[in-house]
Amino acid sequence: MHAAANLIYLPVDIRIFIYDDNHARRDSLRSLIDLSPDYIFCGEAPNCIHVEEEMEKASPDVVLMDIHMPGVDGIEGLKEIRRKFPHIRVLMQTVFDDADKIFECIRNGANGYILKMDPPMRILQAIKEVYEGGAVMNPSIAVKVLDYFQPKQLEHPLTDREIQVLELLSEGLSYKMAADKLNISFNTINTHAKRIYEKIHVSSLGEAIAYYYKNLHGTGN
Asked: Which of 74, 107, 196, 202 could form a disulfide with 207 if both were Cys (CB 3.0 to 4.6 A apart)?
């Protein structure tokens, strides 16, 4: 029998650089990192004006990047890091879960996105996860991302009255029967039908009914 292999855990020190225009928060994050095994603080700055020189000098594994900073903000800093130092992992942080900022960061190669209000242990976990190649998102941000990719209900150009008319015609009623049902004239129904055809770009009642069942039936409109 072969002897069982001895598995030895070798701790890996994760080098972290902090960008934040709030001095107190930088101090707080630095203390958190200094007190945590396997995490090394390697630098800080209040904005990204000198991001290239700072990345070359500090050689971080992970950057904690504030988004809103004076001078050169976190999104511009992210872009520069992606161009010059693609191996560095960038974890965006902000006090807002602003959808526009989220997607701008994602489009420009952010490895994760957390809120500043996240608890300290969650911040450390997020740093470790992006360092190991994961993609991190605060739950409230993840919901926004999922919502973005959900199929959007198509907006339709029809008025409430036109929808009523199309619904009755889709149920098999004639123009005259629909007019009686809605207590309006045959000519008015005919006018509504013509406008429906024009608005949804169809040329027959069959196409109009197909549109109704595809886009309007069961939606509560």
From this structure: 202
